[in-house]
Amino acid sequence: MTRAGTRVGFIGLGSQGAPMARRIAEESFPLTLWARRSASTDTFADTAATVAATPAALGAASDIVCLCVVADADVEDVLLRPDGVLTGMAPGGVVALHSTIHPDTCRRVADEAAKREIAVVDAPVSGGGGAAAERRLLVMAGGQEADVARCRPVFDTFADPVIHLGPLGSGQLAKLLNNFVFTAQVGLALDTFSLADGLGMDRAAVAQVLAHGTGGSRAAAVLAASGFNTDGLRRALPLLRKDVGLLLDVADTARAPRPRTLADLTTHTLSTLDRSPAP
Predict the structure, then answer these.
(1) Chain segment 40-55, per-residue pLDDT in tens
(2) What are the pLDDT digits (tens) for 211-270?
(3) What number is the average pLDDT over the span 133-152?
(4) Is 70 exceeded by the pLDDT of residue 277?
(5) How far is CA 30 from CA 27, 154, 158, 221, in A?
(6) Quick one: pLDDT band at residue 28, thresholds 50, 70, 90?
(7) What residue numbers bound the domain in which 28 lies?
(8) What average pLDDT does range 181-193 have in this prediction?
(9) Which Pfam families has this protein been placed in (predicted)?
């Protein structure tokens, strides 16, 4: 299927999804949008995107549907409700799940989709809306190779790299592990800058050292870029807590040994962000 002939639907026009959808529109894919609030789609009035009345109507207008909603329940709702995406989508379509959800949820919706001869790819992302706008988002994909290949031209509009990790659910495992490690690193960064304060060191100078030295981390860089303001991290606390819980549940179900040090660090991070407005 050529790029010009691939119709794309997008649901989940938040701070992450909206820049992704805009990149798809800018690359001239026929794009259909649906959102619970008209304000979310109004910002696309300057594009050629059309707005569907229901998720089912979006499904009927799309060969590939991208979902970037928040949680497992949201994914299941827009796909499986009576006027959901799967009701309208024709056999042969592909649903790409960009949300960070439990791998079991991916498999559950894939089983329902298969009854309609629709494929599912899990393709969670990392990098933020700014990275999507700059076409450098990371996509971690799981699913059949042919299905991922069909989606890749769409993913390439907002992502580099796109990494195919294996069967369905593999992308979610990678994203959860990534978020788990990031959460642990946030705690390390908070402690590092607090220690620098105690030693009478300048935080900005320490951040420069970490950015160029072996002790640096993405979390330390994020904190420094915010001017050491933890408001954004604190707003993200429910999502960080959700993803840590999902990773530990997956590990326990697989009877994998719990990573004690990382688990302790994530607990420290979550409790620190919960109780303190500043590092």
Answers:
(1) 999 999 999 999 999 9
(2) 999 999 999 999 999 999 999 999 999 999 999 999 999 999 999 999 999 999 999 999
(3) 98
(4) no
(5) 9, 11, 16, 37
(6) very high
(7) 8-167
(8) 97
(9) NAD_binding_11 (PF14833), NAD_binding_2 (PF03446)
SS3 71: coil
pLDDT at 175: 97
Residue 196's CATH number? 1.10.1040.10
How many Å apart are CA 36 and CA 30, to the nearest integer? Answer: 21
**Radius of gyration for the chain, computed over Cα atoms and rounded to the nearest angstrom:** 20
Q: For residue 126, count other CB atoms closer than 10 A to its CB.
A: 18
Q: Are residues 83 and 204 in the same domain?
A: no
Tell me the C-alpha distance between 213 and 118, whole Å.
Answer: 48
Percent of the chain residues topping a pLDDT of 70: 97
List, in sequence order, the alpha helices (H) in 81-200.
85-88, 103-114, 129-133, 145-155, 170-198
**Secondary structure E strands in the chain:** 8-11, 31-34, 50-51, 64-67, 94-97, 119-122, 125-126, 137-142, 159-166
Residue 39 lies in a domain: yes
Please indicate, yes or no, if residue 2 is contained in any of the structural domains.
Answer: no
CA dist., res. 229 & res. 278, Å (int): 7
What amino acid occupies position 164?
H
**Separation of alpha carbons 243 and 97, rounded Å:** 16
- For residue 1, tell me if it sits in a domain: no
Alpha carbon 55 to its chain centroid, in Å, reads 20
| Residues found in the chain | 279
Closest CA to 130 of 29, 241, 23, 9: 23
Distance separating alpha carbons of residues 154 and 98, to the nearest angstrom: 12
